Amino acid sequence: MKIRKLKCIITLFIISIGMLDFASAKNVFEGKPYINPPYVTAIYPNTDFVFAIPTSGERPMTWTVSGLPEGLSYNDSVGIIRGKVMESGEYIVHITAQNLKGKDSNTLTIKVGNDLALTPVMGWNSWNTFGRNINEQLILEVADAMVSSGMRDLGYNYVCIDDFWQEEKRGEDGRIKVNKEKFPNGLRHVADYLHERGLHLGVYSDASDKTCGGVCGSYGYEESDAKDMASWGVDLLKYDYCGAPSDRTTAIKRYTAMSKALKKTNRSIVFSICEWGGREPWLWAKSVGGHYWRTTGDIMDNWTRPEFNGIIDIVALNGRLAEYAGPGGWNDPDMLVVGISGRSENINYGAESYGCTNDEYRTHMSLWCMMASPLLCGNDIRNMSQKTKDILLNPEIIAINQDRLGEQGRIIHRNSQCVVWKKNLSEGIAIAICNLVDSRSTVKLDFDALGIPVRELLRDVWSHKDLKLQKILDLDIAPHGCEVFVVK
């Protein structure tokens, strides 16, 4: 009976016709203001707070903010809140953004206490495109691009420097050394540049003597390295596990040591546990101070290559872990490869062909948002095609990722040709249906059969349209494509 019922939910007819173009997302800097999520954020007491109010709309724009806790102030012409809050508590801040086209108001909840990362981290990481080829100029240009492209105004705010920012050996004093050829002005200069623009700095190290790239790791020097990173203004640490013992007990000890060191710094530093899932970090990472933890090996710029973690292969691993994710602690299926388009042999391990179709990249983005995953772009955001922007800068799909309820979506139906995901939101439900096969699929989506009532709203997230309220949707989905809807 169960099998028969599921077959009634979705009927598929496989046909072979051309690809459809995606609907273009609205330009971030057009129209009246709209205050985007996140609508909740967190900080430790008496630590630096930097928050650029993510706001779409035509510039110039001004912001009015009321209800800020003591210690915080804002710049009304750039919409950046800064300062320190001494007292723990939950503060409701009222924000209004106004331009020549109109205004928008919303609230921001600032939680001052023991938590960070109440919504998944968003930003950019250097590894997937640039690998060891990083330097100060690149990072500052990426920061500028994050602002000028509108990414910051959609919630992307971390700029993360991966492996190879440090020297191979420590100094005579035992301190970790920044590579002066790559970063001649040091990481403090980079952090200050980012913070002035409402962005945050992430860096990388390893729970061993050497990083994956063979430069200086942090094992045995956790406190001094954490202290130095804090003094440079670092806001996030990605902590890898190359060269470390394979057992879980040792991993827990080494990650605990760095977590404790970070908390001693009197700085709010998000802690990314990157041990690739082999020791089941979803069972212990949050308890040792992690804010997100890798559940898989390194992602490839491919739809599928099981031995090397293509997009859909990673989804199969991470998608089953929903019970372990939530505000303050997230499953991490690795960074986004949207828009890399085969231009990084760095992450493809000798694959004969790599790169994805735009439909596959859109599915990638859709499922990372449905899974409440960190959204760390890995493409060169200084040079994005319009199709890449339409995917990464879609405010509606980002809102699903950044929903304050913080629930990771779950699969509610699958067969050999398609899969249906459901993600409960603070207001409504997000539904994603993905075509797993290599040809177009005609799909009949029956909301009643799925147990999802549609009463007030049926919104197509990728076409940016409200649809006629209906119990059954007839869909035509591209090969490896994904459609996403919000229902209320």
Rg is 22 Å
The coarse overall form would be globular
Kindly identify the CATH topology of the largest domain.
Answer: TIM Barrel
Tell me roughly what share of residues is in helical segments.
Answer: 10-25%
Looking at CATH, the homologous superfamily of the largest domain is Aldolase class I
Low-confidence stretches: 1-25
**CATH uppermost class of the largest domain:** Alpha Beta
Q: Taking strands numbered 1, 2, ... along the chain, how are they ordered across the largest sheet?
A: 17-16-15-14-13-12-11-18
Number of domains: 3
How does CATH name the architecture of the largest domain?
Alpha-Beta Barrel
Given helix and strand content, the structural type is: alpha/beta
**How confident overall, as mean pLDDT?**
93
Structure characterization notes:
With 488 residues, the protein is of the alpha/beta class. The protein folds into three domains: 2-25 and 409-487, Immunoglobulin-like, CATH 2.60.40.1180; 45-112, Immunoglobulins (Immunoglobulin-like, Sandwich); 122-401, Aldolase class I (TIM Barrel), CATH 3.20.20.70. It is 20% helix and 26% strand. It contains ten helices and 26 strands. It has helices at residues 2-9, 127-130, 136-148, 186-196, 222-232, 248-263, 311-318, 358-370, 386-392, 395-401, and strands spanning 10-15, 34-35, 40-43, 49-52, 55-56, 62-66, 72-75, 80-83, 89-99, 102-112, 122-125, 158-160, 200-206, 236-240, 270-273, 292-294, 330-332, 375-377, 410-414, 418-424, 429-435, 440-446, 458-460, 465-466, 472-477, 482-487. The chain is globular.
